[in-house]
Amino acid sequence: MKAQVFRGVNQLSYEEVPMPDLASDEVLVQVRVVGLCQSDIKKIRYPLYEPPRIFGHETAGVIAAVGSQVQNWQVGQRVVVMHHIPCMRCAYCLNENFSMCDVYKNVTTTAGFAPSGGGFAEYVKVPGHIVQNGGLIPIPDDVTFEQASFVEPTNCCLKAVRKAQVAPGQTVLVTGAGPIGLMFIMLVKYFGAKAIATDLLPSRLEKAKSVGAEAAFDARDPDLAAKIHAMTGGVGVDTTLLAVPSDKAFFQALDCTRKGGKILFFAEFPDEVEIPINPNILYRREIDLMGSYSSSYRVQALAADIVFNKRIDVDALVSDRYLLKDLAAAVDRATSPTPETLKILIYPEGEG
């Protein structure tokens, strides 16, 4: 089968690799579409992992083979593949910190080499632990593979929204109106709160308003904090969701978030970035700082419901479609986006 093999930093090789061998409890899925995630791009462009590997994890496809002991799954079923499932028994899982679980981190789907997601291939193997514990989600007949591929990123955003306790009537600042920021806006609105967006691109500000933002401002606006305070009765937003790795965005969040409010880090910053802060700002204003990384098993069913029942418009997030053989070009587009670039989807040969 064909796959895009990571051979080193910025080195993707479109090559023939062996079809994964199935154990008795495993499932083989033919990939029909896989989303290109920012985490995939970081793994390709920075020396984070030893090659060779096959990345890609926002996968939707069709079951192509099942192991002899697999029950309740049949060849031909359309499925979303979740690449991580926690053990549900360790100290992290018992405290619902599922993404910290060793099983969650180390047992994942694969198309060969060190298991690394495997979605950038024609076929991906799903380990028995994931098969048996909710890592395959049936796709309803009226849902496209493209739409279904959004279940995993929706889960990640939903986890953050839940962690920040976004509630009806609140106002939420979303910094960055890329694919993740736009999804945050949709989810904030779905949960009955109001979203205000910031970005540097006018096209993304317009897109933010089109998907439900109450207002959208240029992040460079010197009057940003004053405008947001004017919209919130002089108080500030209840919560800020940082969807861009920007220290400037963080300090804007401090200026725009009300006393007793929350600031949630969602975007991953470069490791060398350090943000100086006077702790008395947090102490005197009772600001909660929090982070949200990856997905949560607890919200998996809700994420699927939101996507499958079209409670948010994931189709509005898609801007580009590339064949698997052109993955390097897709990564280049994502790292040097046009004003119209949002979510990029990848298809095996012949599917784009």
Explained architecture:
The protein is built from 13 helices and 15 strands. The chain is an alpha/beta fold and 352 residues long. It has two domains: 2-154 and 296-347, Quinone Oxidoreductase, Chain A, domain 1; 165-291, NAD(P)-binding Rossmann-like Domain (Rossmann fold, 3-Layer(aba) Sandwich). The strands form three sheets. Strands 3, 4, 5, 6, 7, 14 and 15 form a seven-stranded mixed β-sheet that branches. Strand 11 (237-242), helix 10 and strand 12 form a beta-alpha-beta unit. The two termini are 17 Å apart. The model has no long low-confidence stretch (mean pLDDT 97).
Give me a quick take on this structure.
This protein is an alpha/beta fold. It is built from 13 helices and 15 strands. It folds into two domains: 2-154 and 296-347, Quinone Oxidoreductase, Chain A, domain 1, CATH 3.90.180.10; 165-291, NAD(P)-binding Rossmann-like Domain (Rossmann fold).
Largest sheet: 7 strands, mixed
Distance between the termini: 17 Å
The first-level CATH class name of the largest domain: Alpha Beta
CATH homologous superfamily title of the largest domain: Medium-chain alcohol dehydrogenases, catalytic domain
Individual helix count: 13
Rg estimate, integer Å: 20 Å
Q: Which structural class should the secondary elements be placed in? A: alpha/beta
Strand fraction = 15-25%
- Portion of residues in helices? 25-40%
CATH topology of the largest domain: Quinone Oxidoreductase, Chain A, domain 1
Low-confidence stretches: none
Overall pLDDT score: 97
CATH architecture of the largest domain: Alpha-Beta Complex
What is the N-to-C order of secondary-structure elements (H for helix, E for strand)?
EEEHEEHHEHEHHEHEHEHEHEHEHEHE
- Total E-strand runs: 15
Count of discrete structural domains: 2
Sum up the overall morphology in one term: globular
